[in-house]
Design brief:
The protein is mainly beta. It contains three helices and 14 strands. The relative contact order is 0.22. Keywords: Signal.
């Protein structure tokens, strides 16, 4: 069973911004690496020569009631019990109950349920969904989707780039808090393609992971996986932590 990507790995992605040009390309032989824009937060000007799709200008939003609300994924809502989330998964994906697998995290004492979903994103290949339940609350605190060779043997670097660009363009038009939006942020092992939060600081994070190489004075990413997270509280997740003073 594949490893679940849990909340703590996302905390740094909410605040870290790495600057500098970044190149990204797929695995097609002789394909020329394209200059990607500098990492930027919402409202910053795009780098000279950057493609239009990489703009970081955030959609305008007025009052908080106009900001996109992140309450879960499809019928599964934050705060739901495992039984209710299982019912939502069966409803959303016409799944059989035995298609849903369970997994525990021994260090964080969280519990997760997982399911493979073909074409979660149209023409995007098979993804694995994970629904994470909190240590204390036992309710839904995070939903994740992963696309990779591990979820779909036919997955390619080009398909991962395509999925990432489609999802980034979608989220840019969804109306998240303008000052929370950032795109194309280089991080260790990949690029945060999109990050945005709602009025209650619930977040969406889209992370393209892979390996970097230095080519022609540029860092070139060959992607190996695409991760999408819906997080109820990435800054203070409901996971087990040792009380202060015990050690």
């Amino acid at each position: 069973m594949r490893k679940i990507y849990l909340v703590p790995a996302l905390v740094g992605l909410l605040t870290s911004v790495a600057a500098g040009p970044l190149a990204a390309q797929g695995a097609v032989p002789k394909q020329k690496a394209a200059q990607a824009p500098k990492a930027a937060a919402a409202g910053a000007a795009p780098a000279a020569g950057a493609p239009a799709a990489a703009t970081t200008e955030a959609p305008s939003a007025g009052a908080d009631d106009k900001v996109k609300a992140i309450d879960g994924f499809r019928s599964a809502k934050f705060g739901m019990s495992e039984a209710d989330v299982r019912a939502a998964m069966i409803k959303d994906f016409n799944a059989k109950p035995d298609a849903i697998k369970a997994q525990d995290n021994a260090s964080e004492l969280t519990h997760s349920i997982l399911m493979s979903v073909p074409e979660l994103l149209p023409n995007g290949g098979t993804a694995e969904l994970s629904y994470v339940f909190g240590y204390k609350s036992k309710s839904l605190i995070q939903v994740g989707a992963v696309w990779s060779k591990g979820t779909d043997a036919a997955m390619t670097a080009e398909k991962l780039f395509s999925n990432a660009n489609i999802l980034r363009a979608h989220f840019m038009g969804e109306g998240f808090k303008p000052d929370s939006i950032a795109v194309n942020m280089p991080v260790a092992g990949g690029i945060v393609m999109f990050r945005g939060s709602d009025a209650k600081d619930r977040s969406v994070i889209l992370l393209l992971q892979g390996t970097f190489e230095n080519k022609e004075n540029q860092r070139v990413l060959t992607p190996t996986s695409l991760l999408l997270f819906y997080v109820a509280d990435a800054k203070s997740p409901d996971i087990f932590k040792l009380p202060p003073g015990q050690f």
